[in-house]
Amino acid sequence: MQRPLVMGAVSPSSRALGMSMAAFVPDPARFDADSRVLELGPGTGVVTQCLIDRGVPEAALVLVEFSPEFCVLLRARFPAAHVIQGDAYAPSHALDKVLAGKRLEAVISGLPLFTKPDEKRERVVGGALARMRPGAPFIQFSYALTVPVKPRRIGARLETSQWIKRNLPPARVLVYRSA
Question: In 3D, which of 139, 130, 134, 149 has the Cα closest to residue 171?
Fold first, then answer.
């Protein structure tokens, strides 16, 4: 409520939303030592914990968080994950270094995309899809009736979940994949 353009949610994501998002990550049993899952805007780590519960190895997680306070919390909760304090809308050298030689299996986003102009939204989603193999998912939640990035603008296809009513406010999961 105090920082509406910085925070992606009015309240922390529910476990139901986190589990719905994590379900779209490819089967972690097929991951190897070079597999990584990138989470943009993990906040307090609700979705991060759901990814681990799904079987994603903590060491395979790369978390990019803007808030220094949340980074402290994330490092304490997930000591094996790679936590990068930075702006997910402007990927850094630190992110490139952590991902160098690794395979990005999925990107999970809690970013407040609707607070940014279309070009920035398209750059985040399209840029993430360009880093992954064809068909790998960019997973975003949204409270809105419309989508934050029109798939045709970035050469992607889109699938959406049912509304998750056990979240405040109700949300749905949007999954972009390269076409």
Answer: 139
d(CA 43, CA 111): 9
Q: Do residues 146 and 39 lie in contact, with contact meaning Cβ atoms separated by under 8 Å?
A: no
- Residue 124 phi/psi, 5-degree rounding, is -65, -55
The pLDDT value given to residue 5: 44
Q: What is the pTM of this model?
A: 0.92
Cα gap 104→38, rounded to integer Å = 7
Residues of the chain with pLDDT under 50: 1, 3-8
Report residue 135: phi and psi, to 5°. 90, -10
Rounded distance, CA 44 to CA 172, Å?
19
| Number of C-beta neighbours around residue 27 at 10 A | 9
Closest CA to 42 of 16, 9, 1: 9
Amino acid at 148: P
Name every residue whose Cβ is closer than 8 Å to that of residue 94 and which is 6 or more positions away in sequence. 84, 86
CA distances 67 to 8, 74, 89, 152, 161, Å, are: 12, 10, 13, 32, 28
